[in-house]
UniProtKB/TrEMBL annotation:
<dbReference type="InterPro" id="IPR012944">
    <property type="entry name" value="SusD_RagB_dom"/>
</dbReference>
<comment type="similarity">
    <text>Belongs to the SusD family.</text>
</comment>
<feature type="domain" description="RagB/SusD">
    <location>
        <begin position="406"/>
        <end position="518"/>
    </location>
</feature>
<keyword id="KW-0732">Signal</keyword>
<dbReference type="InterPro" id="IPR011990">
    <property type="entry name" value="TPR-like_helical_dom_sf"/>
</dbReference>
<feature type="signal peptide">
    <location>
        <begin position="1"/>
        <end position="20"/>
    </location>
</feature>
<protein>
    <submittedName>
        <fullName>SusD family protein</fullName>
    </submittedName>
</protein>
<keyword id="KW-0472">Membrane</keyword>
<dbReference type="Pfam" id="PF07980">
    <property type="entry name" value="SusD_RagB"/>
</dbReference>
<dbReference type="GO" id="GO:0009279">
    <property type="term" value="C:cell outer membrane"/>
</dbReference>
<keyword id="KW-0998">Cell outer membrane</keyword>
Length: 524
């Protein structure tokens, strides 16, 4: 298989300017290679360690408003996650920067009295994304960011693996580097396959393919998910063969940012493999298509999934790397509002409602851009989910304790072990100090239990970029939600509205790719 991108396309995708201004990309400038890393430094452990830590430049960086250059500023934990949260109607944003507004532009809203309210500008989300999926749209093309960062991540990971052939180190050290490479490759294909209609398989790095000869072999997103699972199998086999665990753990944890308060070791990585397998299956299969065998497989995997957040891949705020340019630091700057449907889904008596959200905010129809964006609450600062203080908040890249418990809850309830499932639900509510009474032993039906789990996922997993996956697999993202809470333009709360979302379930390949590498009409 040839490489993902030719050199020009790859560098162009990595060298746009991310800014609050619209359409600032000069598409007439030829891409210039000033920032490719030197592979000569990868033949020793110190050099390869530094290069391996460069993975973080594709998944989090301090100032996403700077020109993307040597630091490869990534919006991953800011508006890339924000796209997922807003399409899942956990957050809303009426602002046009980076096309945020158009990502959560609904088809229509039907109020309690039957009044149909259309967007005051533009049309439904699929058309708005199509309009902006051009290189001329510059920073307003939303399709480019996750694609760029995940394929950059994959190329970096491939290069790490290629460097091992000439690395002078013991087997456990090499295994740690290889495991780091395999994990992030599997993660990258998971995210690409969970977001885009098509993609490319790229097994080459900068050592074997320094000119990045392009691949034209587009594949369906299901094959990207299969690739992720294939890599996870390889990683599992590798970990099972590690004999010097102490040396492996020392090197593997040393590849993670030093200031993070917890780091994944070999045992934690084994748990993450299973949790990512769960994501690959559950988040890319409609609930209606999941079989009992599928749910039993989920239970088996999740029983060995992320058992504690100390074993999760995380990011925390710190002035030299993240600071405030991520969702926990930006929401209080009015970038995003808590969706009225999120607030609706929080149970009475849940301590998190007033802890997380400021009441009496009253911001209907922001700037006349649409009533679906309206909010009655805002964010409290310095809470478990929102903070501008160093180490004050944590974000998650893949599985977490809460996500694993809630998927076990859902899988068990869907296989008729209602009480067993509710025990996992209660564990999450206890862990997050919700103050809610236990659901075990209350006689909930299967449908009632599933509804409690659905609502809990909305709140317990906020900012973890799974809201859209849930809306899609529940069949809501592309269709409608009934019985919805919506503020009309005067701030009156409608409690039985219908929101017709009509969102794309998977995004098209970005024009930043297809202009150089035309997409296949019928992918392999």
């Amino acid at each position: 298989m040839k490489s993902l991108l030719n050199k020009a396309a790859f560098l162009l995708a990595l060298s746009f300017v991310v800014s609050c201004q619209d359409n600032i990309l000069d598409t007439d400038i030829d891409p210039v290679d000033n920032n490719l890393p030197s592979t000569a430094s990868l033949n020793n452990v110190d050099g390869l360690t530094t290069f391996s830590k460069g993975i973080y430049d594709f998944i989090a960086s301090d100032d996403v408003f700077e020109t993307v250059g040597a630091e490869l500023e990534s919006p991953m934990l800011f508006f890339t996650y924000g796209y997922h949260e807003s399409m899942g109607d956990a957050l809303t944003t009426p602002w046009g920067n980076f096309a945020n507004r158009w990502i959560n532009q609904t088809e229509s809203v039907v109020l309690d009295d039957g009044t149909v309210v259309l967007p005051p500008a533009g049309g439904p989300q699929p058309g708005e994304i199509a309009i902006r999926n051009t290189r001329a749209a510059g920073s307003d093309n939303p399709t480019q960011y996750e694609w760029r960062d995940m394929y950059g991540l994959i190329v970096q990971s491939n290069t790490i693996a290629e460097a091992l052939d000439n690395l002078e180190a013991d087997d456990a050290t090499k295994d740690a580097f290889r495991a780091w490479s395999l994990w992030w490759r599997a993660y990258g294909y998971n995210r690409l396959g969970s977001m885009y209609e098509q993609g490319l398989i790229n097994d080459s790095g900068l050592i074997s393919n320094p000119t990045s000869e392009p691949s034209t072999q587009f594949v369906d997103n299901s094959q990207l998910i299969s690739k992720s699972n294939e890599i996870l199998n390889e990683l599992e086999t590798l970990l099972n063969g590690v004999t010097d665990v102490a040396t492996f753990d020392g090197r593997f944890t040393g590849l993670q940012l030093a200031y993070l308060t917890s780091k994944v070791n070999l045992a934690g990585l084994q748990e993450n493999i299973n949790s990512l397998r769960v994501r690959n299956l559950v988040y890319n299969t409609p609930v209606a298509d999941m079989t009992t065998a599928d749910w039993n497989q989920v239970i088996t995997l999740a029983n060995n999934g992320v058992s504690a957040n100390a074993n999760a891949f995380i990011m925390q705020s710190e002035s030299s790397f993240i600071d405030n340019n991520w969702i926990p630091g930006q929401v209080t700057g009015f970038w995003y509002f808590p969706s009225e449907r999120l607030i609706q889904d929080i149970n009475p008596g849940d301590v998190r409602l007033d802890l997380y959200f400021e009441p009496d905010f009253d911001f209907p129809n922001p700037r006349g851009r649409g009533i679906q964006y309206g909010a009655s609450r805002f964010w409290n600062d310095n809470t478990p989910i929102v903070s501008s203080n160093p180490l004050g908040a944590t974000m998650y890249y893949a599985g977490s304790f809460e996500e694993n418990q809630l998927i076990l809850a859902e899988a068990k309830v869907r296989t008729n072990d209602i009480e067993g499932g509710l025990a996992h639900l209660d564990a999450v509510r206890t862990f997050q100090a919700s103050g809610l009474a236990a659901t075990v032993g209350t006689g909930l039906t299967q449908d009632q239990a599933l509804e409690e789990i659905r609502k809990e996922r909305r709140l317990a997993l906020i900012f973890r970029a799974v809201a859209f996956y849930d809306a899609r697999r529940y069949g809501v993202a592309a269709t409608s939600r009934t019985g919805a809470h919506v503020l009309d333009e005067n701030g009156n709360l409608n409690t039985n509205a219908t929101i017709n979302y009509g969102y794309l379930e998977y995004w098209p390949v970005p024009a930043f790719e297809t202009d150089f590498n035309p997409v296949s009409p019928t992918p392999n």
